[in-house]
Amino acid sequence: xxQLLGIIQRLKAMQDAKxxxxxxxxxxxxxxxTLCQVKFFPATDTFELEEYDEDKKVNKYQFDxxxxxxxxxxxxxxxxxxxx
Length: 84
Prior knowledge:
- By secondary structure, the chain is α+β, with helices and mostly antiparallel strands.
- 37% of the residues lie in helices and 35% in strands.
- A hairpin with a 5-residue loop joins strand 3 and strand 4.
- It comes from Heyndrickxia oleronia.
């Protein structure tokens, strides 16, 4: 649960910096491996999640909800930590 809270806090910090007008971005990594990058667009109040797979392909998803964005990131991190 604390890991999910940490993700939400990072996303919230991105939202709080929207007064700068700049696109905020953060990377999420596990053991030095970048799993995804998140961008926050203040003009539209949306998040864009760029997910990286094993073949270095990028899948992009857009969310207008901080909680759903956080859950997607959390799932990626958990999959990397606990592969099936």
